[in-house]
Write a structure and sequence with these properties.
Rossmann fold; 3 domains; 5-stranded parallel beta sheet; 3-stranded antiparallel beta sheet; about 40% helix; elongated
């Protein structure tokens, strides 16, 4: 607490301080940021023309709001960033559990303090971080958790009757007074708890244990929910829904490029200063896995495919490449398509499958998503490229075997045995003439994966394929393994 701040109620009055309702405070600070052209929600990408304008409208209108969206759509992050619209700090009466306004307290503790000490009543300053209260709604949440309850121990120690307001142990909602109260997954709250929120939203007061205690709380209430739960009959109490000012729908990235920006921003791929060079086409492949999963009928789209999937996938891909580089003593680390296959656990655990998907199995579906993503990535970046010479090599009986644990230089040497493969990656811009061996190996692997996805050649896994011109052989990190490309159908 700054020593220059007023320390008593009298000093606070002399400073000219005037308290504002929290919704007015948010609105005032938002208006200032809009006029100054400041970034309102840093790190929130892809919502500039959809979610954020509606969010700004709700705050300007002083409306409580709910964010409706599937998992992994930055709902909680948006709510937590609302605290940046609060003042850096505000004064409260010292010792108040519910952030009593020194000029107009609402608790019995605050009123008694003013009566006893008058203008000399001490003032504390609370930073904005303590004015944001968040609660995950679960079926076991009680009225006492949210609103409060009578504390018999307080009553006994203070010599008060149970009906005395001084015996109350305040719940989360009163403790959020003069701040923001966020409830995640609102429909999971029991019906009687939802009923308990009515007066807060409409009349701005609460009752505890049936006692006629009026607490005119000053709270900005925000919520999140899954759209299906929110609209399903019996999940949300209609009068509560009617009292929420704005219903704002979030969404997954609408373009692959936007998704890539989010994934790059969130993924932790730094490896203690070690060189990690992730090719742009591999970033795109990883993102397309998520986009394809969101369209696959074997995957439950009501649960959604979280943006955490490409984020954790990219992190695991980087770790797979790092493991290979450490084993081989390579200074440069460049992930390639084989590392995406090695990262299957980052995909399978995030897919909720429909009945048909359960029949196929999550691992098989994940592999198909990777193959299809490789094909689309190559088509987007090098569509129309002449791959005839490469396909012809395999059609004439040629085969290629490259170990999953092969080093970059050895891999490029092996890929060089396929006529036109390395040259194609240079021509279409996947890898330039000055590209590192790791980058070239990754580009060559993408081309072959794309041709396999198009069923122009076949891809085999495990063991060593028949080959007239064998590439480098070796053993993978888990007891041997390689990937081979043969003529389709051979």
């Amino acid at each position: 607490m700054s020593s220059s701040r007023p320390q008593t109620v009298n000093e606070l009055k002399e400073s000219g301080y005037r308290s504002l309702p929290v919704k007015e405070e948010l609105r005032r600070n938002l208006v200032r940021k809009l006029r100054d052209g400041q970034d309102l929600f840093p790190g929130i990408i892809g919502y500039e023309d959809t979610v954020l304008p509606q969010l700004v409208n709700a705050i300007l209108a002083r409306h409580d709001f709910i964010l409706l969206g599937l998992r992994g759509q930055a709902k909680s992050r948006i709510l937590r960033q609302l605290m940046e619209l609060l003042d850096p700090e505000i004064p409260i009466l010292a010792g108040s559990e519910i952030n009593d306004d020194p000029l107009q307290p609402i608790s019995k503790h605050g009123k008694l303090l003013l009566e006893d000490q008058g203008g000399e009543a001490p003032v504390e300053w609370v930073p904005r971080e303590y004015r944001y209260v968040e609660k995950l709604a679960t079926p076991d949440v009680t009225i006492a958790d949210m609103i409060g309850d009578v504390d018999p121990i307080k009553a006994a120690r203070g010599g008060h009757i149970l009906a005395d307001e001084l015996t109350i142990h305040y719940g989360l909602l009163p403790r959020a007074n003069r701040g923001i109260f966020a409830i995640n997954e609102l429909p999971d709250l029991a019906g009687k708890i939802q009923v308990g929120l009515f007066n807060i939203l409409q009349e701005g007061d609460v009752q505890i244990k049936g006692y006629p205690i009026r607490l005119p709380l000053n709270v900005f209430m925000v919520f999140t929910a899954n759209p299906e739960d929110y609209t399903a009959r019996g999940k949300i109490i209609t009068p509560l829904k009617d009292r929420i000012g704005a219903e704002i729908r979030t969404h997954y990235p609408e373009e692959v490029e936007i998704g890539m920006m989010i994934t790059e921003q969130e993924a932790r791929v730094d490896r203690n200063g070690a060189g990690m060079d992730i090719p742009p086409f591999l970033l795109e492949l990883v993102e397309r896995v998520a986009f394809l999963a969101r369209q696959d009928k074997r995957i439950d789209q009501r649960s959604g495919v979280s943006q955490r999937l490409p984020i954790t996938l990219l992190e695991t891909v980087a770790s797979s490449a790092e493991q290979r580089a450490l084993r081989l003593g390579e200074e440069e680390t460049v992930p390639r398509v084989g590392d995406v296959y090695a990262a299957l656990p980052a995909i399978t655990g995030k897919l909720e499958l429909e009945y048909e998907g359960e029949l196929h199995g999550s691992e098989k579906i994940a592999k198909e998503l990777i193959a299809a993503a490789a094909g689309l990535t190559f088509e987007f970046r090098a569509g129309g490229a002449d791959t005839g010479e490469i396909v012809e090599y395999f059609e004439e009986g040629g085969a290629l075997q490259v170990s999953e644990d092969a080093g970059a230089r050895a891999s490029v040497e092996g890929y060089g045995s396929v006529p036109g493969l390395v040259e194609l990656t240079e021509m279409v811009g996947l890898a330039g003439q000055d590209a590192s061996p790791g980058y070239r190996a990754a580009a060559c692997e993408l081309v072959l994966e794309a041709l396999a996805a198009q069923k122009r050649i076949s891809r085999t896994e495990g063991g060593f394929a028949r080959s007239r011109r064998e590439g480098p052989k070796g053993h993978g990190p888990h007891g041997g393994g390689s990937q081979g490309f043969d003529p389709f159908g051979s």
